[in-house]
Structure formats: C-alpha cells, structure tokens
UniProtKB/TrEMBL annotation:
InterPro entries: AAA+_ATPase, ABC_transporter-like_ATP-bd, ABC_transporter-like_CS, ABC_transporter_ATP-binding, P-loop_NTPase. The lineage of its organism: Bacteria, Bacillati, Bacillota, Bacilli, Bacillales. Belongs to the ABC transporter superfamily. Residues 5-226 form the ABC transporter domain. Keywords: ATP-binding, Nucleotide-binding, Transport. GO terms for molecular function: ATP binding; ATP hydrolysis activity. PROSITE patterns: ABC_TRANSPORTER_1, ABC_TRANSPORTER_2. CDD domains: ABC_DR_subfamily_A. Pfam families: ABC_tran. This is ABC transporter ATP-binding protein.
Amino acid sequence: MSLFIEANQLKKRYGQKQAVNGLSLEIRRGEVLAMIGPNGAGKSTTLDLLLGLRRPDEGSVRYWCAEPRQHIGVQLQSTPFFSGFTARENMAMFAAFYGVRLSRRQINDLLTRCGLQDAGKTPAERLSGGQQKRLAIAIAMAHEPQLLFLDEPTAALDPRARREVRELVTSLAKAGTSVVFTSHDMEEVHKLATRVIMICGGAIIAEGMPDRLLKQYQAGDLEELYIRLSGE
Ligand SMILES: Nc1ncnc2c1ncn2[C@@H]1O[C@H](COP(=O)(O)OP(=O)(O)OP(=O)(O)O)[C@@H](O)[C@H]1O
C-alpha cells in the first residue's frame, strides 16, 4: 500500500473550541510532509488524532497495518528525559517502555546515526538544546519505525543546532523513513519537505509540493504564501 495513513473528515472540539474541523489527509510512503499553520491552527491536535492519542469526535483514521504504533516513532514538543541519567540510559529506558530491549551496539548505532556518538555518557539534562532534540529523535527511532512524527523538531534551537536536526531528518528520509513534521520556519519547510499541508482554523487550506504551491499562488517564497493565506 502506498499510503501509510488516510484520515477522513476529522473533527475534534475542546469545549467551545473547534480545534479540528473536517480535516482529511493522507500520509504517503517515502514523503517528508510538513504541517504548517498559525499557533492554535490545530496541527498538534491533528497529530494526536493521527497517532491515536486522542479520539476524534467525528471522522476516521485508516492505517496501512494492524499495529501501526509498532511502526511509528514520535517526538513530541518536549521529551521528559529522566534527569540524572545519561543519554544512553535514557535511550534504554524509553525503548523499554516501547517494549524494545536495545543492546549496547544498537544504542551506539542509534546515537551515531543521530550524531550523538560522543554524548552517550552525558546526563540528558546537560546536553545542549540541539543534542536533546536529537536524543528525542534517537529515542523515537529505537524501534526502527517506518514513519516518524516530529512536532516542531527545531523550535527554540540556535542556527547550528537547527542545521544538525535538519541534516538528521534528511539522512533519515534518505535511508527510507517517512517523516511528518510541524514547523513555523518556512525556509526550513522549503528545504526539508517534499509536500506541505497548511492548516488554518482546523482545516486544510492549501496542500502540495513546495514549488508547485509557490507557482499556484504566484508567491516568491513559502513565508509570503503563508502570510497571505493565513491572513485571509
Ligand atoms: N487539551 C486542550 N484543551 C482545550 N483546548 C485545547 C487543548 N489542546 C488544544 N486546544 C486548543 O485547540 C486549538 C488547536 O490547538 P493545537 O495545539 O492543535 O494547535 P497548533 O496548530 O498545534 O498550535 P501551535 O503551533 O501553537 O503548537 C487551540 O485553540 C488550542 O488552544
């Protein structure tokens, strides 16, 4: 099946707030999909619905396999590391939660893939912001998922750390992992994403490959497009 996930007419309300309002989308194999949209647009709620962390009030989500959670890795906006424990120990403990026992070698491999080969013995809370994000991604990769969800993986990082995380996402995608991520950095979205979904008021208002979207809306860059569409 070429689709990982197919969501149909999702709706989710918190009290008076209609956070997601009739949203349909698909997640395809091999893509790096960016979800963009203003604060409060419904991106994180949509991710939660896709991941089965929340139940939609209406609509449905179809998965490509019977046990999707075993094949999906998730990095949420903040990862509560076990303080006082090293990066390696955190990896082992989080993996155990997912029912995965990692050998020393597997931990070394994952840390190396995520550029953390020298940070394994450092307590997680002492790692830099970029290293912590990469550790969160390494943890999300522990069970070798086919699909990775990253919620604002580069938020609040300095330029070097952002670049490190971007390079990691690119290398994971090249190695065959499909990625869905959210970001408020339109330059980054243009660099990383093979497809973009723009969410506003809980619904998709634009969708397509970055360059096609620019052409379609005759915009110079994604930021211009974003500002134009989110202001309408
Ligand atoms: N648990 C909750 N209870 C009540 N309201 C919520 C809850 N979670 C989200 N909301 C509201 O639902 C709307 C959508 O929130 P959501 O976090 O999905 O947006 P977002 O696009 O991810 O925003 P951001 O870019 O700021 O992370 C917002 O108005 C938010 O205040």
